[in-house]
Amino acid sequence: MSRFLISTPCECQASLSATLDEHRHVTAGWATRSPRGRSAAGEADKELAPAHSINAHLDRFDVAWLCPYCGRNTLRTFDAGAMRRLPAASASPAAGLVPPGTTSSP
Ligand SMILES: [Zn+2]
């Protein structure tokens, strides 16, 4: 099963991310932003961000997020050919399908 990771900055400086399945439907959406002030752990805030894809059957399709930090409804257009593909599983033998430098670090 192919999965894709997309992300885009929100107007409020948060980073909006989502994973898509092979039909380009959103399987998970979240937002992160750098912690302000506290640097101890260096851990970014992460909040659930409802997201859904629009016209997912098209090569150019839109994904809309509801940003949990600023409440905006953020719409971005993505090109299916430019999406980053996630490895199906960490132990997958299909590593050759993934271009170098795109290893995911969840
Ligand atoms: Zn925002």
Account of the 3D structure:
This protein has about 110 residues and is mostly beta strands. The protein has one domain. About 0% of the residues lie in helices and about 45% in strands. It contains no helices and eight strands. The chain has strands at about 5-10, 15-20, 25-35, 45-50, 50-55, 60-65, 75-80, 85. The strands form two sheets. It has a five-stranded antiparallel β-sheet, with no helix packed on it. A hairpin with a 6-residue loop joins strand 6 (about 60-65) and strand 7. The radius of gyration is 15 Å and the shape is globular. The protein starts with a strand and ends in a 20-residue tail after the last strand. Mean pLDDT is about 85; it is low at about 90-95.
Keywords for this entry:
single chain; 106 residues; mainly beta; 0% helix; 43% strand; globular; binds zinc ion
Short description:
It is built from no helices and eight strands.
In terms of per-residue confidence, which ranges show pLDDT below 50 for 5 or more consecutive residues? 91-96
Give me the number of helical elements. Answer: 0
Structural class by SSE content: mainly beta
Q: How many E-type strands?
A: 8
Radius of gyration: 15 Å
Q: Report strand %.
A: 35-45%
The main sheet comes to: 5 strands, antiparallel
Q: What is the distance, rounded to the nearest whole angstrom, between the alpha carbons of the first and last residues?
A: 18 Å
Overall form: globular
Order the strands across the largest sheet as they lie in space.
Answer: 4-3-2-1-8
Let me know the average pLDDT.
Answer: 84
